[in-house]
Amino acid sequence: MAKYLISFPSAAMNVPDNELEQVGRDARAAIREAKAAGVYVFGGGIDESVPPVLVASNGSVTDGGYPWAPPLNGGFTVLELPSAQEAIAWAARIAKACRCEQELRVFGYDPES
Question: What architecture does CATH give domain 2-44+73-106?
């Protein structure tokens, strides 16, 4: 089975304020379904109030992320699934719950993970 990253950037979620509570309930319900199905690995949202830092191999720290890369923000879920078709189906469930499209990526296989 492969692990899939289902994610969205913060800017993709354009939900009216009066719908945010329902979106939260729907998103948590989708995650509970994934847990009940035994496919949930990990998920969450980037805490955008904590700025990123770059840590070098010598342990030195520089404020900010990679200056050339777009910011990493938003929410993500990692699921372990037997096929890309099932990953697409779960991404669609999460997209429906979050009211925004989800990006789907597969992690490369690593026998140590």
Answer: 2-Layer Sandwich (3.30)
